[in-house]
Predict the 3D structure of the following.
Amino acid sequence: MSDELTPTEKVEPTETQPTNADVVTPPEKAEKKFTQEDVDKIINSRFAREKAAFEKQLNEQKTAVEQEYLTKQTELETQLAEKDKKLLGYAKGIMPDKLDEALVLANLKVQKDGLTLDDAIGQVAQEYPNLVTATKSGAQVVNNPQPSNPFWTDEMKRRHPDLYKKVTNK
């Protein structure tokens, strides 16, 4: 006989091969049944875990948005403060092209003498008249060019010279 089984051969049980009677089957496990109370506890605990995870994620996102908001707010407040300083300089008559120099001098006066920025700019304007535009009362106004009127053509200027002079102050 060969080691391989052919379909017609029948194998007799030996001592090493167990028979169906020798195989012990484990007793069937009794299926665990949950009460409604058990199911509610399981669901509530799972819901609480998911809710805590969601709230944690939401708080992290909220913190990131708040941080971005605070950063943007600080940036805008800094820009506003710079614009306010420039506006004070313009109000005191500082020429636009000399405004940065005047603000540096005024900031030094604020730190050194403890003045307000408005007072410091006023003192800078008095001490350094080359930073200030001339007034209309005494001298010719600098840095105040007359805008050209694109609607006045050469033909209109030739036909109505008196009206052109009146409108353009020339």
Notes: The chain has two domains: 37-133, 144-170. The mean pLDDT is 78. The chain has five helices and no strands. The helical segments are 36-91, 99-113, 117-127, 154-159, 161-168.
